[in-house]
Amino acid sequence: KEEKLRLLLCGELNAVQQGVMSAQYADFKFNHYLIAFCTATAQMQKQLVHFIETICDKRDITIKMDDETLLLFAHADDDGEDYKSSYEYACVLYENIKEELRIELTVVAGGTVKNYEDFISSYSRSMFTQKYGGLISPDKKVYAFKDYALIKLLEKIPPKEIVNAVGEIGERNLSIVFNDDELM
Hints:
- By secondary structure, this protein is α+β, with helices and mostly antiparallel strands.
- The protein has helices at residues 2-10, 15-24, 42-55, 86-101, 116-136, 149-155, 159-169, 171-179; strands spanning 32-39, 61-64, 69-75, 105-113, 142-144.
- It is globular.
- The model has no long low-confidence stretch (mean pLDDT 87).
């Protein structure tokens, strides 16, 4: 089951296989936080997997994507009393893992998965967040997709449109943006 889910998230299933998976999860009640764990080595991931297995319940889904990346789709309480967001939960997990295992890792809060389509797109969102989080804030250890969503939106704008927009803003105004850390 885990391998099929991994293949689905990586986009390696054909249309028929995707249809079968969609049918299998048609009645599944998604209300999960996606948390991606990225370790420095496969050995660290083995320790992490053992730790995660001890805290998971039967509604959680774990998927080992590769030797350094582990996904946890943690069931979110329906009443939302435990954690207000996937980011808050990711921060708590990060602190617990650092204290218990003392391993190097980054954690990505990929948001809340509410349906099958969210489940499929969640992995690409979290890997996007890891990539840009590492570039923009390399010292952070916990990233949230919501903090990089604007970059995702800007990525979809054709380069020619960006050049035109920059030209309309003017060099003087653009230098103000480049010199302001908050605006950048």
